[in-house]
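Researcher: Here's a chain I'd like modeled. Treat it as a single chain, no partners, no ligands.
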Amino acid sequence: MEMKTASIETARLLRKHRFNEPTTSYYDADGILRTVTQEEAACWNSPTYDKSVRHKVYAAPTLALAQQWLREKKRYDVLVDRDYLFGKVGKYFAKIIRLKDGAISETAHCRSYEKALEYGIKKALRTM
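Model: Modeled as a single isolated chain. Structure tokens:
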């Protein structure tokens, strides 16, 4: 299974909330997804790189990495579930659990697991 990369909107929200994990790809100033080269890997996500002229670059983590970061650093758990109604399988949705007080919210229903996970990550980032 291929790892899905976060959208540019999600990447912007992650950066706003100080996401600073090593990634293998990024969105450039034009919003195009690029792969990190060997030369860039040494300075990627460092504080000096963030203050450089290319400050419009956004790290593009996989959805799994963003989910893990939210759980470990920001104390939000994003879980994807599926509706079952009268024995029939339904659409996917995400549950966002704020671990410090147990508050739960849900996203709208989506056709795929990846879409539901991304919507859940976005909703968690917006509620911080």
